[in-house]
Amino acid sequence: xxxxxxxxxxxxxxxxxxxxxxxxxxxxxxxxxxxxxxxxxxxxxxxxxxxxxxxxxxxxxxxxxxxxxxxxxxxxxxxxxxxxxxxxxxxxxxxxxxxxxxxxxxxxxxxxxxxxxxxxxxxxxxxxxxxxxxxxxxxxxxxxxxxxxxxxxxxxxxxxxxxxxxxxxxxxxxxxxxxxxxxxxxxxxxxxxxxxxxxxxxxxxxxxxxxxxxxxxxxxxxxxxxxxxxxxxxxxxxxxxxxxxxxxxxxxxxxxxxxxxxxxxxxxx
Length: 269
Description:
Layout: H1 7-39, E1 42-44, H2 50-69, E2 83-87, H3 95-106, H4 108-111, E3 118-127, E4 133-136, H5 141-146, E5 155-160, E6 168-171, E7 189-192, E8 199-203, E9 208-210, E10 223-232, E11 241-243, H6 256-266
């Protein structure tokens, strides 16, 4: 038997059908904001001027080529490679250091009152078809190897210099002791797709890694280039962390006048 609904009830159901997609979108957006707050995660689509991105990319490739040509890929205990240190109060000498200054200015609202004094940085250049990069925690690598305990940066971050390769996946998991994760099963996660100029910031103690690219055959021969920066409230321990000397790499160092001109070209001053 067919039931005829009162006209008012039918109007209410029609209104509900119209509003339901909007309500669902609002719920999804609210959930995303909650996940972002829990993860301490945020992305900027165009973090730096394109001219700075291009110059930074050239320097990253220059650093990689120099180290390969001069057999400078030193490996420390537990097969760990060195990273570099940049004190935030120092005048930038190269685009790498200017980029770090600009990125720190970008995240200031998230990092204020955190006591951050410097940045640990390194360059990652891999073939886009290489596949995933293992999931891990960023930490003071020397202390982890020599003292067997975990000390994390305040923030980890990734600046994508190309738009190929897999996404970075960040979980709301950390490791209190270095054995196992809390929570045991992730409740929230964020995926950051590689797009040239995109910058992703996340809590320094969070589990993260790189997924295989969506089309590894199409990406064959192309490079996934990322500039990694960890922000610290203290300088991590040697020998894994080192100061960077651009002169030793035969790189051109900017004078004060050249830095002012460069910043003027970038529209920063």
